[in-house]
Amino acid sequence: MVLDKRCGDSPEIYLGAYSVEELETYADCTVLVGHFQFDSVDQLSDLAALKNVKRIEGYLNVFRSPGFLTLHGLENLEVVEGHVAIHLNPNLVSIAALGALRTVTGNLYIGSNDRLPQTEVDALGARVTVGGMKNLGSQPTGP
Predict the structure, then answer these.
(1) Which of 57, 98, 109, 115 lies 20 to 30 Å (CA to CA) from residue 129?
(2) Element at 108 (helix H, strand E)
(3) DSSP 3-state assignment of 35?
(4) Looking at the predicted structure, is the pLDDT value of residue 138 above 70?
(5) What's the rounded mean pLDDT across residues 129-134?
(6) pTM (whole model) above 0.90
(7) Which parts of the chain fold into alpha helices (H)?
């Protein structure tokens, strides 16, 4: 039996990484506890170091981060006990790495990711059980 390795102290504390070195501090984690936030990240193109993460107890928020091309590294993520927001990432071209994600207990928001195909957004929305609201629009909206 493999035990979970929990990283983080509280679902109320913000965690994040802005470089490969910072992200690698979570490489052995299977559970992230906290608001895992990537804001204005430009030195990471993916999340490869998080390949062991199965659950997040808190939020996953990826926004305003031009470095991200994909969410590679989150292929084993199954549950987020909180909200997921992926928005305002101008170079994000795929969220296929979220293929194992099945449950989001809070809200799911994916929007204003200029290069992200709506078909991937729709597929994720159809597959994931969401406890809160779903807002799934990959393209910017407005006048």
Answers:
(1) 115
(2) strand 108-111
(3) strand
(4) no
(5) 97
(6) yes
(7) 20-23, 118-127
Dihedral sign of CA atoms 29, 66, 115, 126 in order:
positive
Copy the structure tokens of residue 120: 């991937």
DSSP H or E stretch at residue 122: helix 118-127
Question: Which amino acid makes up residue 69?
Answer: L
Question: Does residue 1 surpass a pLDDT of 80?
Answer: no
CA angle 18, 27, 65 (to 5 degrees): 25
Tens-place pLDDT, residues 88-127: 999 999 999 999 999 999 999 999 999 999 999 999 999 9
Of the candidates 116, 46, 104, 108, the one whose C-alpha atom is nearest the C-alpha of residue 75 is 46
Q: How far is 96 from 111, CA to CA, in rounded Å?
A: 15
User: What CATH fold (topology level) applies to the domain 6-137?
Assistant: 24 nucleotide stem-loop, u2 snrnp hairpin iv. U2 a'; Chain A (3.80.20)
